[in-house]
Amino acid sequence: MIDYSLSILPALLSGAQMTLAVFGLTIIGAIPLGLLLSLGLLAKFKPLHYLLDLYVWLMRGTPLLLQLIFVFYGLPVVGIVFNRFDAALIAFILNYAAYFAEIFRGGFQAVDNGQIEAAEVLGLTYPQTIAKIIVPQTVKIVLPSVGNEVINLIKDSSLVYVIGIGDLLRAGNVASARDVNLLPLLLVGIIYLLLTAICTWALRRLERYYRYYR
Amino acid sequence: MFQLENINQSFKGRQILNDLNLSVESGSILAIVGPSGAGKSTLLRLMSGLDQPDSGRFIIDGQPYEPSNREQGARIGVVFQDFRLFPHLSVLENVTLAPIMVKKQPAKKAKADGAKLLQQLGLSAQATAYPFQLSGGQRQRVAIARALAMQPEILCYDEPTSALDPSLVASVAQLILDLKQQGMTQIVVTHDIQFANQIADQIFELQPNGVQQNDEA
């Protein structure tokens, strides 16, 4: 059994590499985009507000699986063609940015208005207030919710199989079907658990760091 | 001298401040007293530029002054009732933030000046602490230090005794009188008449529905 496990491990690890690539690049793209969208959600300019509400509704209101299929198989119909990996990243970033935008919006609104007034009477400009007062306090507020999404993303990344990308789950599936053996899937489960454990640990560290103030 | 001229302010159709006229001599202490709902907080928000009056103007030393124009830092500093310290910044960072960001002071100078202010207010030992670690009285003094660091000409307090332990009221009074010795013009909004009598050179009584009365203390 150990020999068998070792023999399929390289395939699983290369699948895990793809999983991590989708995961990492989605985080790098979706968090800044979500931040930008959340500022738009808070803007007083109504048309922008409605547009972003519609966007968030679409992204959260339909399955990510469907969005993936749409970006990869649907957009070429109107002449927009992406390779598999780019299509996956675009769908994931657009989808996760919507969730992050809602989390950040809630976080910003949770910062006490008195803080903003205190900065105002000291003469800080609004951009300075955002950078020095609102964002640092928001980070602490949103950290647990962001952590949830990050953990979800590790597992959601397995949806890329639908457009034929070889990620961790697909590597396990292939080996399992070929060898008529459930062990590869068990190993896949263990690797996902390890990945989420590392993320959980890192998020806890971050939360603990932000405990320096209350 | 700081003057308010014909200030009018209404809120939801109710006239709160009605042709209010008021003046404070430089270096003196004015207490603004009155029951809840008389417009004390409204007046403070106007003086600190957080709200705009419906009409009327502010004058400092004969020149019109616009409280919401704070490009070089406000000339009127504010100590809020609930202090509103920045919880994620240390005591010293609370004090140096605005001098660095608004007055563009070099961090080194801002820190040195801030440390001096903290020492003057008996907070040197708390410089690296965070607001949640401080007592109410210490928090208030940090709020005062933060306002003073911007070198305002006038310092306003909103209900400085309300969030404090009664035993600390005397020390706040002393602190306000010490600042007067240094030439600071101060405006204290309070419902505590006794406290007002203790510190003020002049007491201004706000009544509900925009009636006012001016007393020399």
From TrEMBL, chain A:
InterPro entries: AA_ABC_transptr_permease_3TM, ArtM/GltK/GlnP/TcyL/YhdX-like, MetI-like, MetI-like_sf. This is Amino ABC transporter, permease, 3-TM region, His Glu Gln Arg opine family domain protein. Gene3D superfamilies: MetI-like. The keyword Transmembrane applies. GO terms for biological process: amino acid transport. It comes from the Bacteria. It is found in: Cell membrane. It comes from Latilactobacillus curvatus JCM 1096 = DSM 20019.
